[in-house]
């Protein structure tokens, strides 16, 4: 006689459901509120008195056009994803096929683990292990902190946990907004030079003087129909070593500042974003586009060494 067959359930452990961007870290300090996601440790929302300072996206939506993401271990584009370092040639995945480039690093979709949580700040960590195109090992730690007086401060630290020196750079990709299309806004940015770019949005020559061009934002002109997707340098700094970009319109203003670890800033008027020209991308960067190829301002991160850069966003009187 054949014994009856019994089907046993497979135990897979507890399951949870939630938004595709993972855990949502909500912060509050006075009039400021922010949300940071587990996915990419991205800044998903930032408001002041309930009004947005950056373009937001839903918890169930992948960050559109790199909105709010951290860019490491390089920002911006890398020509064909190929570079030479440490006596070897490396090839990264071409993540921007329209321009045949690798773009914005390796961690903007990765999960970041919270290692500190308080009502007004969160610290997240991601361990970046070696890949075929980036055979180096880094620990990345980012802290988002809100202050009633100073708004948002973001501090990103890279530590080399490998046994060889690693090339490194980072950036961030928030889109500033005052709630109206940027064409109706003024932009003030004390930057003397910008990088010209070719059709693949890679630098086509050395930095140029902004004087007499529509890239000259030093006097706070109306943005109007200017089309900008360029990296700026020659940044004026205040007594604290900060460079600042201010977007103003509709009786409001928002400013993004970055410290001296960021000698470059990308300005992008977002023609190709899901909501064209709804916000202004202001991207503090430690190095220019294609830096792993050119070598310009690439950080040589020795084993055991660390590098930190800090930037922030706050509301200002218009």
Automatic annotation (TrEMBL):
One of its GO terms (molecular function) is isomerase activity. CDD domains: Aldose_epim_Ec_YihR. It comes from the Bacteria. Residues 1-22 are annotated as: Disordered. Gene3D superfamilies: 2.70.98.10. One of its GO terms (biological process) is carbohydrate metabolic process. InterPro entries: Aldose_1/G6P_1-epimerase, Gal_mutarotase_sf_dom, GH-type_carb-bd, YihR-like. This is Aldose epimerase. It comes from Actinomadura litoris. The lineage of its organism: Bacteria, Bacillati, Actinomycetota, Actinomycetes, Streptosporangiales.
């Amino acid at each position: 006689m054949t014994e009856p067959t019994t089907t046993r359930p497979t135990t897979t452990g507890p399951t949870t459901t939630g938004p595709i961007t993972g855990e949502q870290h909500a912060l509050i300090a006075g009039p400021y509120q922010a949300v940071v996601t587990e996915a990419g440790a991205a800044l998903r929302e930032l408001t002041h008195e309930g009004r947005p300072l950056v373009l937001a996206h839903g918890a169930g939506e992948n960050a559109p056009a790199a909105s709010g993401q951290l860019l490491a271990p390089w920002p911006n584009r890398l020509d064909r994803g190929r570079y030479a370092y440490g006596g070897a040639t490396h090839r990264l995945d071409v993540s921007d096929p329209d321009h045949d480039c690798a773009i914005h690093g390796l961690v903007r979709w990765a999960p970041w683990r919270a290692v500190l949580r308080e009502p007004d700040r969160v610290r997240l960590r991601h361990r970046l292990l070696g890949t075929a195109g980036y055979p180096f090992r880094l620990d990345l730690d980012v802290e988002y902190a809100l202050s009633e007086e100073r708004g948002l401060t973001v501090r990103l630290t890279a530590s080399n946990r490998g046994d060889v020196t690693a090339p490194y750079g980072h950036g961030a990709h928030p889109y500033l907004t005052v709630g109206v299309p940027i064409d109706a806004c003024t932009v003030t940015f004390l930057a003397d030079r910008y990088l010209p770019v070719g059709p693949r949005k890679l630098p086509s020559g050395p930095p140029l003087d902004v004087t007499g061009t529509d890239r000259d934002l030093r006097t706070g002109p109306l943005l109007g129909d200017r089309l900008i997707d360029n990296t700026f340098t020659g940044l004026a700094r205040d007594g604290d070593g900060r460079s600042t970009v201010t977007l103003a319109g509709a009786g409001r203003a928002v400013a993004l500042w970055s410290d001296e670890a960021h000698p470059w800033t990308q300005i992008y008027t977002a023609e190709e974003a899901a909501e064209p020209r709804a916000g202004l991308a202001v991207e503090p960067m430690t190095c220019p586009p294609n830096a792993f190829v050119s070598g310009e301002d690439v950080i040589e991160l020795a084993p055991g060494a660390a590098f930190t850069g800090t930037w922030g966003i706050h509301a200002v009187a218009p």
